[in-house]
Every structure is written in structure tokens, then in C-alpha cells.
TrEMBL record:
Residues 3-140 form the Nucleoside diphosphate kinase-like domain. One of its GO terms (biological process) is UTP biosynthetic process. It comes from Anisodus acutangulus. This is Nucleoside diphosphate kinase. Its EC number is 2.7.4.6. Keywords: ATP-binding, Kinase, Nucleotide-binding, Transferase. Belongs to the NDK family.
């Protein structure tokens, strides 16, 4: 299996509700490696670029208002199968359809307040990390637990 990178973001509701530690913990405990982390007030232009595939959707303006309504926590995570696995940890887009045990299933109620973002493909993982992080903000490091996670 391949080592991938994914962009995970705690949205403004997750920050305001004090869920930052809880959400980071879930990715840490699973065994993924954090390679980038910052609290950030997202400018409108960046939010629009990040969600450009949804530009034509009726909810697009509200989505941009939501994402720029307060600070977000930007994260880059690395690991074997991390993109698909993170999507599973996050759960369905609509929190009412998200399974218990997932972040959205446990912690959220509505699509418009679904607390967290995760890239939907390895290519988008790389694209989004490049969009949200500058060079020098990411750390390549060897985690001592690695041999106990991957044989
Ligand atoms: P996901 O965040 O699960 O990858 P997505 O990429 O389809 O979902 O959409 C991005 C975000 O846009 C999503 O987290 C919340 C918002 N959104 C999606 N569909 C929506 C809808 N039908 N009504 C309101 N907001 C929506
Ligand atoms: Mg998406």
C-alpha cells in the first residue's frame, strides 16, 4: 500500500465548539502522522479556490461564508491509505447520515455545520496541502512508532 497525504481542516464550528483536541486525537490514535498544523483565518479567495468544483451549486455562497466565518485548523496528515481512511473517520457529508463512531456522526447535526473537511483523493490531497500551506510550514519527520504500525 502507498503512503499518501491528505488535507484535513477543522471548520470554524469545530474551533468555536472546542472540538480541536478531540478531532486531532482521532487521527493521531489511528496512527497517522501529522506533517502540518496551523490555526488560520481563511481569506474568501482561498475558500473559493478550495471549493471551486462546487462553484455552480446553490449553497456555494453560504459555504464560503461558513468557511471564512472564523479561524480554521489546517492540517496535513500522512500515512498508508490516509485519504480513504480519513474520509471514513470523518463520516458522511450529511452528519445525520454519518455513522456513530465517525467525527460527523458523533459530533455534528447538519451538512452546513459538519465540523471537518477531508480530501477526497490522493491527487486532491496534494493539491489542497499545496493550497493551504507554504513551503517551510510542513515537516517531514520520522515517527518512532512507524514499525509498530506498518510491517
Ligand atoms: P465533503 O465535505 O463530505 O467532501 P462535498 O465535497 O460534497 O462534501 O461538499 C463540500 C462541503 O459543501 C460539505 O462539507 C458541506 C457543503 N455542502 C455539500 N453539499 C451540500 C448541500 N447539499 N447543502 C449545503 N451544503 C452542502
Ligand atoms: Mg469534498
Amino acid at each position: 500500500e502507498e503512503v499518501d497525504q491528505t488535507y484535513i481542516m477543522i471548520k470554524p464550528d469545530g474551533v468555536q465548539r472546542g472540538l480541536v483536541g478531540e478531532i486531532i486525537s482521532r487521527f493521531e490514535r489511528k496512527g497517522f502522522k501529522l506533517t502540518g498544523l496551523k490555526l488560520f483565518q481563511c481569506p474568501k479567495e482561498l475558500a473559493e479556490e478550495h471549493y471551486k468544483d462546487l462553484q455552480s451549486k446553490p449553497f456555494f455562497p453560504k459555504l464560503i461564508d461558513y468557511i471564512t466565518s472564523g479561524p480554521v485548523v489546517c492540517m496535513a496528515w500522512e500515512g498508508v491509505g490516509v485519504v480513504a481512511s480519513a474520509r471514513k473517520l470523518i463520516g458522511a457529508t450529511n452528519p445525520l447520515n454519518a455513522e456513530p463512531g465517525t467525527i460527523r456522526g458523533d459530533l455534528a447535526v447538519q451538512t452546513g455545520r459538519n465540523v471537518v473537511h477531508g480530501s477526497d483523493s490522493p491527487d486532491n490531497g496534494k493539491r489542497e496541502i499545496g493550497l493551504w500551506f507554504k513551503e517551510g510550514e510542513l515537516c517531514a519527520w520520522a515517527a518512532v512508532q512507524e514499525p509498530w504500525l506498518v510491517e
